[in-house]
Amino acid sequence: MRFETVERRRVRFGMADVEQDRDRREAWLISVDGTPQSYVDLLDPASLPFDVMRRVADVIDALPPGPVNALHIGGAACSLPRYVQHVRRGSDQLVVDFDGDLVDLVNAHLPLPAGISVRVENGLDTIRSARDLDLIVVDAFEGGSMPEEFASTEFHRHVSEALTGDRTYIVNVLDQPGLRTTTRLIDAISAQFGVPLVIADLGVLAGTGTGNVVLVSTKATLPVAELEARAREARFPASVSVGL
């Protein structure tokens, strides 16, 4: 992929770049302080080149068919909500992001499809009053780390109160060797929902570097063997297990 910077702007948590894919003019990359946050192809929302987003999408694809009522905490350019809206027509999705400057920047270049709304708000404030949700996805970072409140017992109690039906809860964590944040989240999730499914970069599991860990709790039956096969075939392979 080759990119051309279209706009650079100071946002709440750093310096953001909007870059256009030179080979696909309707595709865009959003970065903050040089770290890619979202890739969006306006003509093909099903295109998810980031491995971690593909893992989350694979889980959502395995849920029972039909539209979902979803809350996304952390949005960037909303690549995952756009994907969900594309494959599950009629979904009602709210994205909350604490970085209003980034939201404004994205809105100036990448219009959202119908069915997705964005609110500038702290996710903890949103989750306190949320109800009747099928799906909650947490993918929020400040300076490269998940905000502390999203790993708390209080937050997960509100998550439990907000979910209904198959009660699907997905968290993306960027963790260090030793997996301290992941371990804390597993404890908090287990207290409310039972031990989650863990999809983890092999590198961070081996202690060789920073990596993504996706935690999944759902009442739906997931094809774990299929998810594991897809994760191991990815550009950055991952393992799938129940707990660590």
Written overview of the protein:
It comes from Lentzea waywayandensis. InterPro entries: SAM-dependent_MTases_sf (IPR029063). This is Spermidine synthase. The protein has 8 helices and 12 strands. The model has no long low-confidence stretch (mean pLDDT 94). The chain has helices spanning 51-61, 79-87, 100-109, 123-129, 153-162, 180-193, 202-206, 224-232; strands spanning 3-11, 14-21, 27-32, 35-41, 69-73, 92-97, 116-120, 133-138, 163-175, 197-201, 211-217, 238-242. It has a single domain (46-242), classed as 3-Layer(aba) Sandwich (Rossmann fold), CATH 3.40.50. Helix content is 31%, strand content 34%. β6, α3 and β7 form a beta-alpha-beta unit. Strands 7-6-5-8-9-11-10-12 form an 8-stranded mixed beta sheet, sandwiched between helices. Strands 1-2-3-4 form a 4-stranded antiparallel beta sheet, covered by helices on one side. It is an alpha/beta fold. The radius of gyration is 17 Å and the shape is globular.
